């Protein structure tokens, strides 16, 4: 179970979020009200480009725990579940002991926070951006999958025992690079909205 991977934190303080931190780590927040009507603030920090994908948990800005991803971090009256794919964190939620689910919101000054604000203020534009990302992923799959199958079919054992496949689509190196770049942008857009898609996963 993920909860067994959780380690005790070292007690350092969470630094104030600056705009340049958008390029180094993700930051999420949630405020939980306990039975005594006390408000407890938790923050979750996940670094980009880390050797092992992990998340740090802060209680009232004090580092109390960390875990590799996926993670289940114990908090007041429940756990916070964090899941990730190759494009980054794609699911983060607070699950109470009563099996109620609540959202964990991104730092408002982060890239994710800005994307969420766009979604709330201009839902139609946000929907169009999300739809374009999915269409882009589908188009890239249709264009590149035959080329991948062709490359696999040229493996000696496969070509000798099954046969070879010639792709009806042949893209130049630059077109393949452009397709890869567009796919990365589309996957990043979905990850920013904490929404997975089978093509991303």
Describe the structure.
This protein has helices spanning 111-121, 123-153, 156-161, 173-192, and strands at 7-8, 25-33, 39-47, 54-59, 62-68, 71-75, 78-85, 88-96, 101-103, 105-106. Strand 2 and strand 3 (39-47) form a beta hairpin. It has four helices and ten strands; from the N terminus they run ββββββββββαααα. By secondary structure, the chain is an alpha+beta fold. The strands form two sheets. It has a six-stranded antiparallel sheet with strand order 1-5-4-3-2-10. The protein is elongated.
What's the short version?
The chain is an alpha+beta fold and 201 residues long. Helix content is 34%, strand content 30%. It has 4 helices and 10 strands.
What is this structure's SSE topology?
Layout: E1 7-8, E2 25-33, E3 39-47, E4 54-59, E5 62-68, E6 71-75, E7 78-85, E8 88-96, E9 101-103, E10 105-106, H1 111-121, H2 123-153, H3 156-161, H4 173-192
Antiparallel strand pairs: 1-5, 2-3, 2-10, 3-4, 4-5, 6-7, 7-8, 8-9
Helix pairs in contact: 1-2, 2-4
Throw out a few tags for this protein.
6-stranded antiparallel beta sheet, 4-stranded antiparallel beta sheet, 201 residues, 30% strand, disordered C terminus, elongated
Order of helices and strands: EEEEEEEEEEHHHH
Q: How are the strands ordered across the major sheet? A: 1-5-4-3-2-10
Give average pLDDT, whole number: 81
Structural class: alpha+beta
What is the strand content?
Answer: 25-35%
Number of strands: 10
Please work out how many helical segments DSSP would assign.
4
Cα(first) to Cα(last) distance is 21 Å
- Poorly predicted residue ranges: 197-201
Largest sheet: 6 strands, antiparallel
């Amino acid at each position: 179970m993920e909860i067994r991977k959780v380690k005790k934190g070292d007690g350092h303080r969470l630094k104030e979020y600056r705009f340049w931190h958008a390029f180094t780590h993700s930051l999420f927040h949630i405020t939980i009200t306990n039975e005594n009507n006390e408000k407890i603030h938790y923050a979750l920090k996940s670094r980009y480009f880390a050797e092992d994908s992990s998340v740090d948990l802060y209680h009232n800005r004090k580092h109390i725990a960390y875990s590799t991803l996926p993670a289940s971090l114990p908090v007041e009256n429940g756990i916070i579940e964090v899941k990730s794919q190759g494009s980054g964190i794609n699911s983060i939620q607070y699950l109470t002991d009563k099996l109620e689910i609540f959202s964990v919101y991104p730092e408002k000054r982060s890239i994710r926070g800005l994307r969420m604000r766009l979604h709330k203020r201009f839902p139609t534009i946000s929907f169009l951006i999300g739809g374009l990302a999915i269409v882009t992923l589908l188009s890239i799959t249709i264009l590149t999958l035959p080329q991948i199958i062709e490359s696999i079919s040229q493996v000696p054992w496969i070509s000798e025992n099954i046969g070879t496949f010639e792709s009806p689509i042949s893209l130049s190196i630059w077109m393949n690079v452009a397709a890869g770049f567009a796919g990365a942008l589309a996957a990043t857009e979905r990850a920013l909205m904490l929404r997975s898609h089978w093509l991303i996963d």
